[in-house]
Specification:
Two copies of one chain form a homodimer.
Chain A: E1 3-6, E2 10-16, E3 19-26, H1 28-36, E4 42-48, H2 54-62, E5 66-72, E6 78-83, E7 92-97, E8 117-120, H3 125-134, E9 140-144, H4 147-152, H5 154-161, E10 166-170, H6 171-178, H7 183-191, E11 197-201, E12 207-210, E13 215-218, H8 232-247, H9 252-269, H10 276-279, H11 283-297
Parallel strand pairs in A: 1-4, 1-8, 2-6, 4-5, 8-9, 9-10, 10-11
Antiparallel strand pairs in A: 2-3, 6-7, 11-12, 12-13
Helix pairs in contact in A: 1-8, 3-5, 6-7, 8-9, 9-11
Chain lengths: ~300, ~300
């Protein structure tokens, strides 16, 4: 088992200036695993309710994602309703129904205990820590988190941060966590909490990777339209960790390539609602957009 | 005569979270010409009042900037008072005293009529147009403008836009001018108004160059502190046009290099109040930061 994702599986209802959807498949583990499946074998640990049917499992199966760790329990699947207006950089949550997610305790199947690469999607920090501790053979683990845990559970978050190699975090949350406005200083402060690599996601402005050896920025691919930003961060993580797991190379040069793949995959995610575009990709499209980002940033020394 | 700048010379009073200054030398023509002087010979057309003394002219002389086109007239020099708070991306104007700038009519000395490269700093669009029309031998002219003219004088602005090769504009103003939120669409729409090259400045997020052949993004250099963003846009323009004038090369590859020099010079401008840091540069520092931006963006294909 190479790459494991722990996180949410949800039904999302989303309104953007371009349209509206009702209860489509979403959640951090979904966006991450569908994306990473273009790079390597990926397994998911998550929880769903009785309303999560064969047709939903089929989406994962279509991408050869191992769902042995997806527990199906009595009750309804996690639901999220949100809206994007104006500059679409910020989701406005209209409704959250945690449902079966409220009592989620990740259970790692024995077959996954040799996992080398781990993505801890945005769940309760104490649960992230339990998962991290259960996996002794990791080469790299990456963590996502959010404002809610940064403000509400700083001690639990500090514990799990001390155990991971990589933190993927958005700009506003990096500032909140570090209490530093300047992103360079924010990343330096966060590194002292544990991660050797801090990737600050900046939405339409791309991402900045603060690695052990150097700093690297990658722009967002320029799209004609952003239809739905939901899941873009988890999709970035899927491209980033997918490439690291595929290559087994944690060098500075390869961390940079991984960040570019993160940006590439994020750009596909926002072209449609849900994971639709991510399911319909081809390896050629991924490589072509990688080259376009190269062309977008290249200049002669 | 190679590169000519037309714009304002001002005394700025600025408050930022890092400190406060009173009536220091500023204005678009000042930031532009001091910056461009590191690349090529530059001349300035502007107006100052009787309070503009020998010690102020000395700043230009120190950088071998030709001030034969700087008219000194009865009255007081243009004064601007502004403040930056919070994320420092936006100046809050506290006071504007146009003084002699109110009746500024740029006069081009005969010796400048063979000018090949022109920067039209942010002044009344009708005046920009007069200057543009007076110079028949231009290889490239670049225009800056602002929200005030976009909203208040759209017809005059359209006339001058139709005559220039390059527009340098910030993100918010590009959206206002094009009535498009998406920056790619905004640039495409602006290109139909005249300029072959549109450079959208995005402050701490860098800049995007929409050239005749390709799109290029350059990040902002990551600083530990931004002391004062005043003049960063004109400084970017000074590096950009300075490099183009120095090389005489308007190719796609060289427009990219010019944008990197713009970003490099902008990063120096914000390290101190006013033009202090820009006066104290060395060519080695400029080249070193150019290489650092290369390292910040390079990845293997």
């Amino acid at each position: 088992m190479l790459l494991l994702a722990v996180g949410s599986i949800a039904f999302d209802s989303i309104r953007t200036p371009y349209g509206e959807t009702e209860e489509i498949l979403g959640g951090s583990a979904t966006f991450f695993s569908v994306t990473a499946s273009w790079f390597t074998s990926v397994s998911v640990v998550a929880v769903v309710g009785e309303d999560f049917g064969e047709q939903h499992f089929q989406v994962f199966r279509e991408r050869s994602i191992d769902t042995a760790g997806v527990e199906r329990v009595p009750g309804r699947t996690f639901r999220w309703k949100g809206e994007y207006t104006g500059d679409m950089n910020q989701a406005h949550t209209l409704e959250t129904q945690l449902n079966v997610f409220e009592n989620f305790v990740p259970k790692i199947p024995a077959a996954y205990l040799d996992t080398q690469y781990l993505f801890l999607g945005n769940i309760l920090p104490a649960l992230q820590l339990n998962v991290r501790r259960a996996l002794p053979n990791l080469r790299a683990s990456a963590l996502d988190t959010m404002n809610y845990w940064i403000q509400g559970m700083p001690e639990d978050l500090a514990k799990v941060l001390a155990t991971v190699e990589i933190l993927l975090i958005n700009e506003g949350e990096a500032r909140m966590l570090s209490k530093q406005h300047n992103l360079k200083k924010a990343a330096e402060k966060i590194k002292k909490l544990g991660p050797r690599v801090v990737v600050i996601k900046r939405g339409e402005h791309g991402a900045t990777l603060f690695g052990p050896e150097s700093i690297f920025t990658v722009p967002a691919y320029l799209l004609d339209e952003v239809y739905d930003p939901t899941g873009a961060g988890d999709t970035f993580a899927g491209g980033f960790m997918g490439h690291l797991a595929r290559t087994g190379d944690l060098s500075d040069a390869n961390l940079r390539r991984a960040a570019v793949y993160g940006s590439v995959m994020g750009s596909f995610a926002v072209e449609e609602f849900g994971v639709g575009r991510l399911l319909r990709l081809t390896p050629g499209e991924i490589e072509s957009r990688y080259r376009e980002i190269k062309n977008l940033t290249h200049f002669d020394a």
